[in-house]
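Backbones bend. Our protein:
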Amino acid sequence: MAKAASTTDYRDLARRRLPHFLFEYLDGGAYAETTLARNVSDLQAIALRQRVLKDVATLDLRTSLFGTEYAMPVALAPIGLAGLTARRGETQAVRAAERAGVPFCLSTVSACPIAEVAAAAQQPFWFQMYMVRDRGFMRDLLAQAREARCSALVFTVDLPVPGARYRDIRSGLAGAPGLSGMARRASQALRRPRWLWEVAVRGRPLALGNVAPMLQKESGLNDFLAWISTNFDASLTWADLDWIRAQWDGPMILKGVLDVEDATQAASLGLDGIVVSNHGGRQLDGVLSSTKALPAIAQAVGQRLTILADGGVRSGLDVMRLLALGARGVLIGRPWVFGLAAAGEAGVSHVLSIIEAEMKVAMALTGCRNITEIGPHILSADPR
């Protein structure tokens, strides 16, 4: 941690700590990773408008999302397999999020099951869900989320089929069935003895908590990948959201919206929020970055539902940029999971403190004293 000055420093630390296949899974995107790169470059190209001689002695980052007040408009995005990066990883992450006063969203395909994360948490957290063919499994999982007092449901809709992620094939995570794939991953794990001891040995059961009952083996990644390819429901339509609503009585947020028409449809159905997202560049390569898609969506439905955004966020400045473009809150993904991989709970806490400090500097130098004062007026006109 002493070497980490920015959130991107944690990427390098995580790469040294994690087995190759796991790092590549977290770091990579779909196809040629064009959208993955756009998420970062388009966001960083947004120029802020520096202002001077403003009274910014007191800065207030507090915000309210879905009826709950948080310390800043940042949430830990749901990340599949995140808990495999550190010992019982999601339990460490939820504690760090609580300490920072921001939401934590648990993935359906987490390492730690809902009940374990709930036992580690003092406050309600968010739960992310995919539509799968087995409605009984979904009904049971949503019941577990309700029992755990999860305060919001993030329903991800941009994964009817898995994207083609070439890095996963090259690393041995996917494309190498049976003993061949297990042998490749085992050899990589042996090169990371610290991870092997802390996570694979001390962190057992090393299983995919919420979906483990659906798999044949305790931890088999081959079974997990096969389950996703055969059980995620590609027939999902807008009409199916009624079934989800019937199982869930709290705020419901649709994640994976990138088109104005889809955002308008979500608003017309009375959803509480959307996440403008391209799944971190991990699904359809070549689509718009969240940065490019967000302004038109915010203009169309920003007064009708709560807009969150993710994709390419690497700093507190990036959070400011997305807020100025119309988001009410920003989800961060890779930075927090790399912090978790590098230094556990303390790493996640440090990532969040870095983002908070960078936001305060950016707010002060753009003349914003609180979150409500952040808007398009803090963006500089494009000189081109």
Observations:
- Strands lie at 63-65, 68-70, 74-76, 105-106, 126-129, 152-156, 252-257, 273-276, 306-309, 329-332.
- The first helix runs from residue 7 to 17.
- Residues 132 and 232 are 4 Å apart (CA to CA).
